[in-house]
Amino acid sequence: MSTQPASADLDAIGPDAPIFDPEAFRLTDEQAAIMATARRLGRTVFAGRAAAYDREAKFPSENYKDLHASGLLGIAIPKTHGGLGADYRTYAMTAAEIGRYCGATALTWNMHVCSTLWSGPLADDLDMDVATRAEHERRRAIHYRRIVDHGAIYSQPFSEGGAAAAGGVAFGTEAKPVKGGWIVNGKKIFASLSGHADYYGVLCTELAEGDKASRRNTLYLALPAKAEGVSVVGGWDPLGMRGTVSRTLIFKDVFVAEDEALMPRGVYFKAASSWPHMFLTLSPTYVGLAQAAYDFTVRYLRGEVPGTPPVKRRMYPTKQIAVAQMQIKLEQIKAIWFQAVTEAGPNPTKEQVLRAYAAQYSAMEGANEIATLAIRTCGGQAMLKSLPLERIYRDSRCGSLMLPWTAELCLDRIGREALYEPGEKDE
Hints:
The protein is of the alpha/beta class. It folds into 3 domains: 7-152, Butyryl-Coa Dehydrogenase, subunit A, domain 1, CATH 1.10.540.10; 174-269, Butyryl-CoA Dehydrogenase, subunit A, domain 2 (Beta Barrel), CATH 2.40.110; 275-419, Butyryl-CoA Dehydrogenase, subunit A, domain 3 (Up-down Bundle), CATH 1.20.140.10. The chain is built from 12 helices and 7 strands. Strands 1, 2, 3, 4, 5, 6 and 7 form a 7-stranded mixed beta sheet that branches.
């Protein structure tokens, strides 16, 4: 059963207001226009496809064709390379708009965009010597052309089942230097876009014969999906975010050419150490889901959800109080999150890092709190799978699990880093 509202229904509802009002949040016209493009795509196209992607655990390939056609596939690619040239904050707010309509699309799009965000504006903030900078510029142009000209999709497999994704130890996936490049061996689990990306942006440890694994030797390499030795194994049948198709990737003696480096040697470690907001980019999806749960509740109580009887339930005080609670929680999430993504940059202060952790936690846990309240408030009929709230609830529950900043890790780091200065320890 299709859940896409008819055009007449959409016209009757009226356009969705921006999650972040351009005037209230002092956005530029360019930022507002990019976000409006995402909102239009999400509302008129992505929302109608989301149920099928979720039901079938199917990757949203059609949405990626639309992202390419609209220019959003290259949102963070510099304008000099044919992209939209969006900065970190612009990307984050745009991703929230997409998450409002299809969580799986927004979450996988993040994995793709990070390959350009990290190698683009983020890398531009890091120190490199002249020769390294020139080589990086030459190499990233290759990746950008693939995306802008041909719609190539990049992924970012991160997790390995150990402490590496959280920054505790070196990545277990290893890259052995050879003439002209590297030989890569290892695996990534919960690897979103597996079997659907054209290139896997793999974080791995460069390890020559006799070397000891070190996080300082992390490489960020684009492995062609069709390269010999790359395989996708296992199934994908999770609670939520089913359209991400995050199956396991295996790399067996995969040759990767030098030009497939997304960052020069040593630059990823610098970024992870000095640009921590790079790990906040999963959160926009959940800001969007929080907004979606609130939007649904308001429309449902007003009798305006397409496909349901026009029965109003807004006159009951219990419903009104619940909507007020949802509105307060949503505004709290938006406020701290907007401040955090606005502060994103190199060498943040301790307070800014703590705020980034708090923003991540607030978005990931708060989205599900709002969705939970939406279910209780709207009642049993709203839980039908023909309506989006049930999917929004399941998708929102997955946010607290997202590495490298899970909800538990955020709590741990906030408590520890608030109480200890660097180098301090108890006797």
